[in-house]
Amino acid sequence: MNITKHNEDRRYEVLEQIKQTAIQEWPNNFQIRKDEMFDFIMANPDLPITYDKIVFLLRWSSPFVDPLRNDFFDVFARLVSEAKGLGDMTLVKSIYLAMPFYPTDKDRREKMNFYQSGIEYFLALGLHHSAGELYANLAVSECGSTKERIAFCEKALELLDQTSKEYASCRAVREILCQIGRRGNRDFYHYWSFGGTIFSKGESIFLSPIFACEALHKTAKGVCFDVVILKGYREWYETMDSLNVSGEVKEIADEAMTVGTSKYMSKEMEMIRRSDETVTCQADGKEYLCRVFTIRRVEKNGERIIGDTIETHYYASGVGLIRTELLVTGRDHKREYVYNLCAYTIKGGDGMIPCCVGNQWYYSQEKCPASIDYVIKREIVAENGEEYLLSGWNFAGDNPSSSYDA
C-alpha cells in the first residue's frame, strides 16, 4: 500500500482512536481497549499494521496477547507476519519474546512449536544472537523442568555473542538453575540475575546492566533481597526484549572525588565521598584502607520517603568492593543490612574495581539466619574493548551446607 492510500484509509483513523481511548482509560479499561485493537486488526486482514501500533501493544500490556483469546496464536502469527513485512528483525524478535509461558500451560506444545519456528527463522537468516535470546527467554520464563531450562541456557550460550550482556545474563541464569538442581529442586526463597558492562570515563566507573530473571517464592525474616552490590538500586533494567530500550547507566564510583564532596546523579540521587576507612576483609583477614562512597536520595527539607535505601560501599584498591551497607527506612523503623566479601579471585587489573576476565567476588550477608544459604556472586566473563562484561546472581535457599563452587 502506498503512502497516499495509507493516509486515505479511514481504518487507520479508527485504530488510532481505539489506541488513544486505551491511553485515556489507562489502567482501568486498558485491557478491554487493547482487545478491541486486536479484534479490529484481526477483522481487517488486508490492513497493514504500522510499526507504532505494534510497539504500543508490546509496551503497554502484559501479557502482550491475552492467552484466553480463542485466536491467541492467530494474533501472534498476524503480528509476526506484519513485522517481517516491515523488515524489522528487532520487532519480530520482540513479538516472539512476548509469548507468555506458565508452568501450568495446557497448550505448551503448541506454544513451543510456534516459538521454535521463530528460532528457526532467525537461524535461517544467520541471526544467531537473536535465536540465542529466544532460547535464553525460555530458561528465564520457567518453561519446563530445571533440567530442560538448563538445556535452553546451553543452547542460548552457543548462539549468543559472548561479549553481550545477554550472554552474561544467561550465564548467571544457568548458574542459578544448576544451584537449584544440585539441591534436588527443593523450594527456595529467592533468586535474581543480571549481566552488565563495567566501563570507565575518566576517573568515574559506570555499570550498565540488563535484567535477566527474578523469582521470589517465599519470604525469610532477616534477609534482604534487594542487594545493590555492583548492580544498582531503583534502576530501569533492560529485559531480553531490547526493543528501543536502554538500561540505566549508573555511576557507581568516582576516583576523582575528594573527601566531603558530593555529586548529583539521575533520579534525584547523589553520591557522597566519605572519609577513607580501614576495613578488615572477611575473605582474607587483611586490613585495607578503603575509599568510601554513599549513594542516597537528595535530601529536601528533611523529607523522608518510606522504603528509601541509603547504600554505602567500601572499595579496596586491587581487590574491589569488600563491604556494602544498606539502610532501609520503614514507617517507624530502620533496618540495616551488611554484606562482606567472603571469597574472591583476582587474575588481573587494578584500581577500586580491578577488571580482568576471570575475576570473581562472592559476598555474604551479616546476621543472615543460619538456616538460609545466601549466595551472591559477581564475575567478569569477557572483555570488549574498554568495556568488561559482568555476570551476577544472588540465590537464597535452605540447606546451609552449600559451598562457593557454583
List keywords for this structure.
406 residues, alpha+beta, Serine Threonine Protein Phosphatase 5, Tetratricopeptide repeat, 2 domains, twelve-stranded antiparallel β-sheet, 12 strands, disordered C terminus
Q: How would you describe what is shown here?
A:
- With about 400 residues, the protein is an alpha+beta fold.
- The chain folds into two domains: about 160 residues, Serine Threonine Protein Phosphatase 5, Tetratricopeptide repeat (Alpha Horseshoe); about 220 residues, no CATH class.
- Helix content is about 30%, strand content about 30%.
- The protein contains ten helices and twelve strands.
- The chain has a twelve-stranded antiparallel β-sheet with strand order 3-2-1-12-11-10-9-8-7-6-5-4, covered by helices on one side.
- A hairpin with a 4-residue loop joins β4 and β5.
- α2 packs antiparallel against α3.
- The termini are far apart.
- About 35% of the residues are buried.
- The C terminus is likely disordered.
| Helix proportion | 25-40%
How many structural domains does the protein architecture include? Answer: 2
**H/E topology pattern:** HHHHHHHHHHEEEEEEEEEEEE
Overall pLDDT level:
87
Radius of gyration: 24 Å
Strand content: 25-35%
Provide a short characterization of the protein structure.
With about 400 residues, this protein is an alpha+beta fold.
